[in-house]
Protein 1
Amino acid sequence: MSDDDLIAAARGAARHSYSPYSRFAVGAALRFADGSVVTGTNIENASYGLALCAETVAAAKAMDAGRRGGLVAAAVTGPADVPITPCGRCRQVLNELAQLGGTDPDILCVGADTVKQIKLSVLLPAAFGPASLMQD
């Protein structure tokens, strides 16, 4: 699957967004080393703090399906003209999945006409992850 296909999958996921409060529909698509893709969309809640971001939904779906690592790329789309990046929480969630497989995935931050490709380690330098809790 190409990066363009991954972006199209994220845009498709955004169509399922439940975002009645912000009206900011976000879609995410995660590509794994075996070529499979898992998508997610944001799900808002009247109690704003309980909302779920698209990236977190996709990562949870992947983990629920038994995926532990192998994350090589993620695309994040939204209705903004400029490329959007994952929020801090989502960066941490993606990092957990990536560190389980020892990868540093490309994050495709998608705007209306622009895509900015950034390594997850650049978005979340000196990340806390599974290795941070390992004890000898």
Note: The radius of gyration is 14 Å.
Protein 2
Amino acid sequence: MKILKYCPSCGKETLQWDGEKKWNCPSCNFNLYNNVAGAVAVVIRCENEIFFTRRNQEPKKGKLDLAGGFVDPKESAEHSCKRELFEELQLDVDTSMLKYLTSLPNVYQYKEIDYNTIDLFYEYTVPEKFQVSLELAEISETVWISMKDISLDDLAFDSQKIFFNEYLNP
């Protein structure tokens, strides 16, 4: 992980990383916390098929991903699901139909900084498969994959690999 050196408060090159979640400046006692960020992942399911996106940017460009993203400040996880599905796929979902499944820790590396996340998994069942309008900046394609054909190695994030290992093998 990239280590920050300069204190944002006093500007001195004295910022120290504790190796887990906090930077501290011994010169001015400033603390900067790298707290856990909330993220949502939506398992869109039609019978025995799951809807995946393929990442079009780092991290994990080219790998399969679930639709979703980070929870914004002052936003519920369910609203994040609705917002992210609309932003990424132009898909308008009824939040009352989202079923919370579980949460798992994850690490999301962005520009050489590791962000610890808590990934909240939801299931959204649809009566028939659909096509979407892609947000090509984030997604290169979408695919429906039969549950029996999902390969954990094709998934972008460790939390999704752990999730699907349990989801597919109850």
Note: The radius of gyration is 18 Å.
